């Protein structure tokens, strides 16, 4: 079996992280990204993917330093909370979403 040369793949397709950061600068795309992560969380209860999705959006929308200023939360604490290891409280998530121009919403399950 041949080993995949990731540098060659990146040269051909572009860097996924760069694409994602550019894509998530759009508020509608960021909202869809987070909704997909929340839906997946509700299916499998794996909070890591949800927290990393929030981190992706925060980085694209201005960075963790910017988010820290907007939410009045410690930058290092935010990095930890959004690392997948953290366990943010609802009020913390609400502050983060508010800073990102988003809000939590409840809907009837299908």
Verbal overview:
- By secondary structure, the protein is mainly alpha-helical.
- The chain has one domain.
- The chain has seven helices and no strands.
- It has helices at 6-13, 16-23, 27-44, 47-61, 64-71, 75-81, 90-99.
- Helix 2 packs across helix 4 (47-61) and helix 3 (27-44) runs antiparallel to helix 4.
- The model has no long low-confidence stretch (mean pLDDT 91).
- Report the sheet with the most strands, covering strand number, pairing sense and barrel closure: none
Q: Which regions have little confidence, pLDDT < 50, spanning 5+ residues?
A: none
- Helicity level, as a percent range? 55-70%
Radius of gyration: 16 Å
Helix segment tally: 7
Mean pLDDT: 91
The end-to-end distance, rounded to whole angstroms, is 44 Å
What overall geometry do the principal axes of the alpha carbons give? globular
> What is the H-and-E element order?
HHHHHHH
Report the β-strand fraction as a percent range: under 5%
Number of strands: 0
Sheet/helix structural class? mainly alpha
Q: What count of structural domains? A: 1
Please give a quick description of this structure.
With 110 residues, the chain is mostly helical. The chain is 67% helix and 0% strand.
């Amino acid at each position: 079996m041949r080993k995949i040369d990731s540098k060659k793949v990146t040269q051909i397709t572009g860097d996924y992280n760069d694409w994602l950061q550019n894509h998530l600068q759009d508020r509608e795309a960021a909202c869809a990204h987070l909704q997909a992560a929340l839906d997946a969380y509700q299916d499998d209860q794996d909070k890591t993917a949800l927290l990393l999705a929030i981190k992706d959006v925060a980085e694209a929308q201005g960075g963790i330093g910017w988010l820290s200023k907007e939410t009045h939360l410690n930058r290092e604490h935010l990095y930890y909370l959004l690392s997948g290891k953290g366990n943010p409280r609802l009020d913390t998530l609400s502050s983060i979403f508010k800073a990102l121009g988003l809000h939590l919403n409840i809907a009837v399950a299908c």
